Amino acid sequence: MSVELRSANTLSLGERARLFTGAYEGYLMPTHIDEAALGWMQEKFDFDLDASRIAYRDRQPVGLVNLGVRERDAWIGGVGVVASARRAGVGEALMRAAHEEARSRGVERVWLEVIVENTGALALYEKLGYELVRDVEVWTLPGAAGEYEGREVPLGEARARLTERHEPWQRADGTLVHYDDVRGLVTETGAMLFCARATAQLQQYSGDPEPLLRALRMFGDVYILNLPADDPAAQVLRELGGSVTVRQHEMLLELEH
Questions:
Q1: pTM
Q2: CATH assignment of 138-248?
Q3: Quick one: CA torsion of 15, 69, 138, 189, rounded to 10 degrees?
């Protein structure tokens, strides 16, 4: 099968959203991405549209890879192929093209997450040289009214109490700088950054997670994206009645230059 790879800029935002949705049809977690959602993602996650790639077959788009770029790091923000073009090497071609684009921009590390049960994608990433960094989980926790320890503080005050740690791309500093609704909260034993939207979303934290999580659930149902499986907050979430909805492998490719 002859496939041509072009910049993501060859399609409009709406066309890419439809392709994104089609590429995830029948996936372990089917995903519907509309134009607004994709526009939000590419802004917050720093998608480089010149570096991201669209696969064409017979002049029709059949696959895509989104590449976020931040200085020496990059992130695969979704790669997929429509059902009619799968198992023909298109996904591998897209990934290799993304790596070359990243390398040409001085990127040294490419990150991604893959659902644990997606053994086919995992095998491809291992073939391409990705190595497991850690397992991460998506958590939900029902909200609960009541009093809580702690107080909201200016964002800078809460941030100053955070210890340095590796955060997944979706909760990293480079993402949070694009948000205008991040809030800070501190307790006697910790601090956190969070957003209160349709759900209360923990972004970053440091210190004892129990009082922080008890405070967070006062803002609504809690959602935490890609929390490390061995993070102390995971045990607290279990004790509070939380549940894991998705388990993923976080993986890293060190690019050779």
A1: 0.95
A2: 3.40.630.30
A3: -140
